[in-house]
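Contributing: when you submit paired examples, paste them exactly as shown. First protein:
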Amino acid sequence: MMLFSQANGRRVVGLTEAEVLGSLAALSVASAPARVTALKLKGRGPRDVLAWRQVESFGPDAVTVRAGGEGGDDVQDDEFESRRDPMGKPVITEDGHCLGKIVDVEFDGTTGRVQRLMATDEEIAGERLLGVGGYAVVVRGG
């Protein structure tokens, strides 16, 4: 398992050209099942979002991606920014209780499956995730 806080800033390297494409800056998360769907890179330029399916491995020093990071055109940068990055967003249960803000995400570096969302007030199992919106993360009540 990997925490986003540990992976944040890690170099992202394309396997085809063995070049550094940038560094990990954010995750895009979807529900049902809770999983990482894309990576946002810092320092890559106009094509700074990669689809999770391009990830070959999460190593201790770098994230490697297939095809030099090409082919991520199904991931929209504005959609990623506005809706799917859970970090810092309030966590609200389906019945309206606030559980604090997301401070970290634990995920499987091989599959992208989200194991836990860490909020300021409690840890939330990934299975409880209902959605990540532009304003908040919504989870099932616990």
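Second protein:
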Amino acid sequence: MVPEGPPLAGRERAGLEEAAREPWIAPVPESPCRPHVMSACGAAGFTPDVVHHALDWNVTAHLVAHGLGVALIPRLAQPTPHLPITRVRCTGNPHRKLLTCTRGGGHARPAVEAALREPRELAPTAVA
């Protein structure tokens, strides 16, 4: 996620390494999401210069919208609409794996079925 405008916002895809010199907004150190961000950046060959920490993805999106840095957020995160931000897909496909399970027959219950459908609709290429 980058602020609208150059250099990365006009692109459909970019390598994480292209944002290596940008200031970064990352999950707080205690967050279970932080290791995903740090390891994805490490795999791209850099340690991000984390200038702000955020507790949730909407706070992260607002910080990005104000031009305070870039961030790596999951496709399932749904930031506030109409912010001046652009989601640029990462080449190299950094990802995390989500697993679900239900009791036998539980997937047929409307609420469970809806909860299982949501990730498939939000990130269809990521769900097998």
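If you have annotations for the second protein, write them as plain sentences, like these:
DSSP finds three helices and six strands in the chain.
The two ends are 24 Å apart (CA to CA).
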